Amino acid sequence: MTNRDECVALDARDPLAALRDDFVLREGEIYLDGNSLGPVSKGTQRRVREVIDHEWGEGLIRSWNSANWMDAPIELGNRLAPLIGAREGEVLVADTLTFLLAKIIGGSLELRPDRHVVITDAVNFHSDLYIVAAMARLAGRDIIVKTIDRDTLVDYLDDDVALVMFTHVDFRTGEMLDMAGITAAVHAVGALMLWDLAHSTGAVPLDVTSANIDFAAGCGYKYLNGGPGAPGFMYVAPRWQGVLRNPLPGWLGHARPFDFEPTYESAPGMRAYVTSSPSVLALGALDGALEVFERTTMTEVRVKSLALTDLFISLVEEALPGVFDVVTPREHTLRGSQVALRHEQGYGIVQALIERGVIGDFRAPDICRFGLTPLYLRYVDVYDAVQILVDVMMSSAHLDERFIVRLAVT
Amino acid sequence: MTNRDECVALDARDPLAALRDDFVLREGEIYLDGNSLGPVSKGTQRRVREVIDHEWGEGLIRSWNSANWMDAPIELGNRLAPLIGAREGEVLVADTLTFLLAKIIGGSLELRPDRHVVITDAVNFHSDLYIVAAMARLAGRDIIVKTIDRDTLVDYLDDDVALVMFTHVDFRTGEMLDMAGITAAVHAVGALMLWDLAHSTGAVPLDVTSANIDFAAGCGYKYLNGGPGAPGFMYVAPRWQGVLRNPLPGWLGHARPFDFEPTYESAPGMRAYVTSSPSVLALGALDGALEVFERTTMTEVRVKSLALTDLFISLVEEALPGVFDVVTPREHTLRGSQVALRHEQGYGIVQALIERGVIGDFRAPDICRFGLTPLYLRYVDVYDAVQILVDVMMSSAHLDERFIVRLAVT
Question: Cβ of B147 and A262 within 8 Å?
Fold first, then answer.
């Protein structure tokens, strides 16, 4: 079993160690919930101050041009693009994930006018399920949404499928899907592929270009650390730009927004998918948060992410054998950057951990979820978190008596 | 003609004078564009700092409960409600104006399933025109959008009209419409009435309750000073809550968001119209900006607004007789809180004013637009702005020679 000194040594030679200083973290707290809401970065603090005091405060209305607020959704998309393996002009930052999915789903259904089926994962994030049902209803023709067991996808693929929408890393279990393989299978029947990258972006290396996907969308507040309710992003493969229509258009996506034309004419490129301006403060917060990613690579992040999740799993299994069902796959190619532990008393366990300064979260009915984020987490944090978990399992008032673990403490 | 000393005296006895200190304004600049983007307030600076450093920075994920981020769109709606004459639980702050209009239009068309016509104003803000056309297309049945001369509305009202959408104060001319009268006429044929309050909220007293309107939406970045791309707001009359469906649903509008149910079931009240979380930073910025309105009343604001616009018009007409066509109505009941001057060289005039520190804006083809915002503008600012306008008209390099005004300077 890895001991604490070994973790200290791992931290000492961690190439990402210096990045922790970019974040505002509380002394005595171990934050394992960056997969739900990333912490404040110094880049964010600086950029938001700059937006408020300088761009908005001094520039006022002029900053639409002088600070280039007009292009901010596109420019920020370009900054984010390398994190998903996209190129300049393929990513837009705006709105929230649900609205971006709405635009892509609505537009996609028009691209396959003779097909009637949309497939999604029955255990997809529920907002994805609601918006796909809503956009199917708004399609103005009979669309059937099939929510399936994702492992049985091939059984459902035929030439009546218009679109498949999956989430790349499962928000509960942390299982990562085979983006390229699934996309190829979907394309083989002439359907379109939309990936929700909410739990992938900034967490695992992504290459939407080589995976040849059609569309993607994700959010800015998890591993990207853009702040609560941060704008989302969307990706449209170059072959679909100018082809995929924005079903929810607005003036900022018009070819000539300041000509005030009564009829909508789409701007070229990703700008077509802008409806109206997202909060410039919120864009600034995300912009500042992305700086830290430019001081590392997703390959480096991935190496440490797997090391942290491996460490967490092995420490839990060694210290608390048989107590938890480790839901997250052991196989690296199937794992995101979180560890999910199933336990009947999951809710109480997470509450007890939070009281002792280990911040994870609970997902009904029985998942304790721990996001392990390499930019600011140390190996020693993982070690300490597991020790506290052991302590909780041996003594917590939050646990039903029959679940208390009795270990021989050495 | 009012002289500068008289303006100084008016400022000395202005009951709103102290509110100017709540804003961050640049020395030597006169900001007449608060109808497009309001300035930074000290309330906003304070609240955004609090959200970043305390709520997000320290509370992290816990702030969804401890800082009540979950209820922020509703709570902020309650804070805004008195500005439009609405009551608690009738206003929501979220998304942007265009998305909120999309939700209302989409939902409204379902409430009048046997009617085929939506009426809007041909000179409405163009984003309103685009989204009404888009939502008509998504209705899944034949809907005709008629963009009419608003003064001829009665000619178009019949029992095939489902919805009328007008903007209460015209963004170009500043003309204010008769909310109660038009709403009554629309209701008389059984149609629904949606008001865009973008140029009204925080600018003129509003009473959506006594006007008996069905729906309204507006934006947070103009007279409310919520910052660039600030979230918008929507109002749903109590009689339609639980009846108007949200056609673009998301997990935060679910009756039980944390039960992760696969099927959408709408929350009661205004929460039904939340899709996903708006930026909490952006909500904070608007929240801080609304504080100043609690130190005055819209009646007081209106008295000063009319005094400022009257002063501006009279000074321009006296100093530059016949030079401009004053497009904004003289009659107080028909005037918002801006003055629009038509001039063939409008673009150059506005550029010249901006260079000399008077910030207005230009709306094609020929409107010079000046927002007169009582919370931070002084009478003497109006006086000085007009003097600078006179100076520009007599000498500017931005003007074609034949438009230069030659006055006998006394």
Answer: yes
